[in-house]
Design a protein that fits this description.
By secondary structure, this protein is α/β, with parallel strands linked by helices. It has 2 domains: 169 residues, Rossmann fold (3-Layer(aba) Sandwich); 130 residues, Rossmann fold. Helices cover 44% and strands 14% of the residues. It is built from 12 helices and 10 strands. The strands form 2 sheets. Strands 1, 2, 3, 4, 5, 6 and 7 form a 7-stranded parallel beta sheet that branches.
Amino acid sequence: MTSGVAVETPSRSRLRELARRLEETLDAVLPARTPVVLVGVDSRNVGDAAIDIATRAWLTRRGCELRLTVDRRTYEPGVVARRLGDDSALLLVGGGTVGDVWRTQEALRRRALADFPGRRVVQLPQTVHFQSREAETEARSLYERCERLTFLARDAHSLEIARDRLGVRAALSPDMAVLLVDDVARRLDSLDGRGRRPAPERDVLWLLRDDKQAAHTDARNLPGPPQGVPSCDWPRPRRALARFLRRAVRATLRGGDAPRRRAAIRRDEEREARDRLATGLAFVASARVVVTDRLHGVLLCLLASVPVVAMPDRHGKLLPFLRTWLATTDVPWCETVDEARAVAARLASAPAR
């Protein structure tokens, strides 16, 4: 791996093409200089942080004033209505939470759509997954009433569900994190404080989910690593005290606008997002090869020019994205641990690029 630069590999070039496509799609659904309110902001893991940073950077480039950001704890319809005005748009954050797996995020999304049914709404790129047809039918009853909603689906399967089963106007669009393609090299070079990219410390990093989307479970049906694999999920956040203080400030809002307190919350969220992304980049850059079932684990590796091997997650979020946007030459797909172990060992022993 070359020190001091993220190598322009074919995979990075492909991500650059996807970033251009994403920008064109976004520009078509949201005119420049449109004021926006962003609903669903979250930096609970590295992928969320990457989406958050990329979203705000894109809004800045478009000249779109970000009037308010809210999550499930700070959302207040009256406050949102006052900030929206007549010329604004409601943006729903991207990710992989549309459906009935991540219920708190979906509940916030539906609440915002129900509170502002006549507004221009853009759902930034999302994966759609429903475990029950009943939940899907319930979602359709709301989504199809939102005539000014544009839904961006981040894989072909999600696009089909959004159009045919949820009844929304939808378009195909990559994940927001691909917009970081020109930003990652600078972030990597700053990791050691001397303008150089850190050298790998291990051959293979097994970055596997430990949440409800983990493919592997133990005897009690709890998420856990596959037997014999020394895996771990994203590193835990380092700003525990800051998050505690932020929760305390949130509790003082109590339905009021409180612009200064909301601005302080947002500034701290931005700091945490930057910290989490830096931590994630350092984590994947610490290995010669990464094996992962996380979509943003794959994307950060490709952005950082780290060879990556993909494995299944429980709900099939990752494979449709890879099939839609990337090739097996970019990301080898392995169904089993043994297969992934063999491919990772071969990649780790290959000459450094």
